[in-house]
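Worked problem 6 (solution included).
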Amino acid sequence: MVVTPLARRLVLMLTSFALVFALIWAGMMTYAHGLETRIARDWMDLVERCRTAIEAGIPLDTAGLEPAQIISMPPSSRPTLHARLLSHPGGRYVIEEEEFAAGDGVERSCRVAISDYRIGPTKREAAVLYYDFLQLMTGLLIAETHWQAAILPIPQMALRAFEPRAPKNEGCMVKSVVIVALETHDIEVTTAEISGCSGPSMLSGTAA
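Solution. The predicted structure is:
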């Protein structure tokens, strides 16, 4: 079989095209993996900041965070006394810290949610973040510092929750809950004082 110069050129062109395409694809996959890793790292950092602040009854660690906003945020189900939004610079997820009137003080809530509900997480992104939360919960359960908490099921939602074995103070219950919408893949984690809590405000500087 005689291979003509034109055929050789075509083979070389196709080979070069395949090589370039493979390099571009590999670069895209590396970038996507790196972006996914950064998102997951930032998300878990926010989750841990919320959990630590609410469980220990201390101010939220805001080092490296900046004021943020949530676009198309679902309205809060109860009147808020004080609130603020924070995120990593350019972050995809934000902390929503809120305080509600409770007795002579406040009850606190700290939620990690996506910053723009119009551009929700992909199915894979939500799965990675959900898995990371389960890893956190499993570590706390193995350390025997927390219990797996009961939570009422919600249709079309995946939910898991845990709470400290030792209440922050007498009668004050704190719970951390992850919620994933199975259809839209929206995911959020909230650590909140849920009953018997009334302490000083961490946002106003004085008791509410």
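Discussion: The two ends are 90 Å apart (CA to CA).
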